[in-house]
Amino acid sequence: MRAELTDLAERDIRHILRSTIKLFGPKQVRAYAAVIERGIAMVAEEPERPVSAACDELVPGVRRLNLEHAAKRRGGASHCLYYIRGRLKDGSEGIIVVRVLHERMEPRHRLVRRL
């Protein structure tokens, strides 16, 4: 299955990577960008994988994947992908990454307004 990012998700990623390079440098920003890409590939490959979680209490159909699973180590990432199944821009069925938020952020108002 293919995955697309919303404009907000793309903005989230740009912000995350800008902050990462300022705080940790170019080597870490490359590593974190790879973790984000791996997380997106994981949800596209298996949207309901056991390490993801349904977030129907926020918006029906929304799921969350903590990117530490893409980093393959506990504490290896501190952001979460929020995504849904839906119709992609080309009309095919796929995964839409709605937001990429820090795990400490309250997602309710950031997702509900978008969806």
Describe this structure in words.
Pfam families: ParE_toxin (PF05016). This is Gyrase inhibitor ParE. Keywords: Toxin-antitoxin system. The protein has a five-stranded mixed beta sheet with strand order 1-5-4-3-2. The protein contains four helices and five strands, in the order E-H-H-E-E-H-E-E-H. The relative contact order is 0.21. It is α+β, with helices and mostly antiparallel strands and 115 residues long. The radius of gyration is 13 Å and the shape is globular.
- Second-tier CATH architecture: 2-Layer Sandwich
- Low-pLDDT segments, ≥5 res: none
Taken in chain order, the helices and strands follow as: EHHEEHEEH
Q: CATH topology, what is it called?
A: YaeB-like fold
**Largest beta-sheet details:** 5 strands, mixed
Major sheet strand order: 1-5-4-3-2
Summed up, the domain count is 1
Helix content: 40-55%
* Overall mean confidence score, pLDDT: 92
Report Rg: 13 Å
Bin the strand percentage: 15-25%
CATH superfamily: RelE-like
Q: In oligomeric terms, what are we looking at?
A: single chain
Enumerate how many helices there are, as a single number: 4
Structural class computed from helices and strand pairing: alpha+beta
CATH class: Alpha Beta
Shape: globular
Keywords: Toxin-antitoxin system
Organism: Nitratireductor basaltis
InterPro entries: RelE/ParE_toxin, RelE/ParE_toxin_dom_sf
Protein name: Gyrase inhibitor ParE
